[in-house]
Specification:
217 residues, alpha+beta
Length: 217
C-alpha cells in the first residue's frame, strides 16, 4: 500500500504547476484533492477523476476515454467527477482549462450561497427555519423586510395571525435585529420590551399579554 507521501509525489506534479499549493485528504478508498477548500478531484491507483464544470461537461462527455466515476464497492456514484485520461493530463492547456473552469464554478456557487444566506432570517441570532417560516406567513420574507418592519410590528403581525405572543418570541425578535442572543438580555431590557409590547398590543386593539410584575431580578 502506498504512503501518503508517495501519493503526493504522483498528484502534486499534476496540479500544483497549474493552481499552486493543494491539500490532499483520504476519501473512502480515494485521495481527495482540495483547492481553496473545494474538492476538485479524486485520485486512486494512478487514476485521476476531475470534477467537471457545467461549462465543460458536454465536451468532456464526448471524449472517448472519459467516463463518470462509479465505484460499486463503496457505493460512490458521481456525474460530476470524470476519469481524465493521460491524453488530457499531458495536454497542459486543456487540463489547466478544465481545472480553472471547475474552481471558477465552485467559487461562483459559494458566492451565490453566501449572498442568499445574507438575506435569510434564519441566519440571524436566535432565529431558525421555523421562525423564518412564521415570519414569511405574515409577509416578512427577508432580513431587509424584517428591518423595515421592526421587531414590535412583527410581533403584532404574528399575534394577529394567531401565533402565540410569548416572551420568548418577543425577545428573539428583538435580539435578532440587534444581533444579541436572548441569554444575554438584562432584567431591565426584558422588562422594557414587555412593557413596549403591551403598549403596542393595546394600541392595536389587542389585550395586553405580559404581567411585568412577575419578572424577578
Amino acid at each position: 500500500m502506498q504512503t501518503i507521501n508517495e501519493i503526493r509525489k504522483e498528484i502534486i506534479p499534476l496540479f500544483e504547476p497549474i493552481i499552486g499549493e493543494i491539500r490532499i485528504k483520504t476519501y473512502f478508498s480515494y485521495y481527495a484533492i482540495f483547492k481553496n477548500n473545494f474538492m476538485i478531484a479524486l485520485y486512486q491507483n494512478k487514476a485521476t477523476f476531475l470534477r467537471i464544470s457545467q461549462y465543460d461537461i458536454a465536451d468532456i462527455s464526448q471524449h472517448p476515454s472519459t467516463y463518470n466515476l462509479s465505484d460499486d464497492k463503496i457505493g460512490l456514484q458521481s456525474r460530476k467527477f470524470h476519469f481524465i485520461p493521460s491524453s488530457i493530463l499531458s495536454d497542459t492547456r486543456k487540463f489547466s482549462s478544465l481545472i480553472r473552469s471547475t474552481i471558477n464554478e465552485l467559487e461562483s456557487e459559494k458566492q451565490k450561497t453566501n449572498k442568499k444566506r445574507s438575506t435569510q432570517i434564519r441566519n440571524l441570532p436566535n432565529m431558525n427555519l421555523k421562525l423564518e417560516r412564521m415570519l414569511k406567513k405574515v409577509g416578512i420574507n427577508s432580513i431587509q423586510d424584517f428591518i423595515q418592519i421592526g421587531y414590535i410590528s412583527t410581533f403584532i403581525r404574528l399575534t394577529l395571525h394567531g401565533f402565540e405572543p410569548t416572551e420568548d418570541l418577543l425577545f428573539k425578535l428583538n435580539g435578532a435585529l440587534n444581533h444579541q442572543y436572548i441569554y444575554t438580555f438584562t432584567y431591565q431590557q426584558k422588562l422594557g420590551l414587555m412593557q413596549e409590547a403591551n403598549d403596542a398590543l393595546y394600541a392595536s386593539g389587542l389585550r395586553k399579554r405580559f404581567n411585568t410584575n412577575h419578572l424577578i431580578m
